[in-house]
């Protein structure tokens, strides 16, 4: 068995950045059939929770650990948001230029891209596509400050909770991640055509469809 070797050339990997944000609107069947670009996306902080051990005791010893269900959440920050996001942020527009708040919040889908870098190619080594399903956005704080000699743009922030969707053969999930450095390039191109729109409307495929796309082989 060969000895372990650390930090070889090309294996010093890291992740950075976030871009290519897309908001997806579901139809009445819950299928994400329409996507719009999310400009001004500054950060997405993934915050999974749960998966906590619950110790069970018997015969005066720790008998086993039961693990609680894992949930996926995130904090999304941006300088702006698509007009289409209003209905998912509890807003309605009864007349042009008039916005009514505190309305029911709808569920939406989201995708974004993060960079994968290494010591040879830098940030251009590759990227990961993050596909998020069943999102609900909590109300966000908006801090409006006077303009001064050090002006800053307002940053909007939303706490996202999710409801998992079915995946054949696995537990339901809210998150699929696709790594460009390991998947088939042709299948990745097909997925990006769906996510970002090519000749058709941008759509967010369900997990089973994503898995099938990469399981088909080159």
Give a structural overview.
The protein contains two helices and 16 strands. By secondary structure, the chain is mostly beta strands. The strands form five sheets. Strands 1, 2, 3, 8, 11, 12, 13 and 16 form an eight-stranded antiparallel sheet that branches. A two-stranded antiparallel sheet has the order 4-7. 19% of the residues are buried.
Extended strand count: 16
Class from helix and strand fractions? mainly beta
- Helix-strand pattern: EEEEEEEEEEEEEEEEHH
Query: How far is it from the N-terminal to the C-terminal residue, by CA?
Result: 32 Å
* Tally of contiguous helical segments: 2
Q: Which percent range describes the beta-strand content?
A: over 45%
Helix content, binned percent: under 10%
- Report the principal-axis shape: globular
The poorly predicted ranges are none
Give the averaged pLDDT, no decimals: 90
Largest sheet: 8 strands, antiparallel
Which radius of gyration do the C-alpha atoms yield?
21 Å
SSE arrangement:
Blueprint: E1 14-26, E2 32-37, E3 41-46, E4 49-50, E5 53-58, E6 61-67, E7 70-71, E8 73-78, E9 92-95, E10 98-100, E11 108-118, E12 122-137, E13 156-162, E14 165-167, E15 170-173, E16 175-179, H1 185-196, H2 207-215
Antiparallel strand pairs: 1-2, 1-11, 3-8, 4-7, 5-6, 8-13, 9-10, 11-12, 12-13, 12-16, 14-15
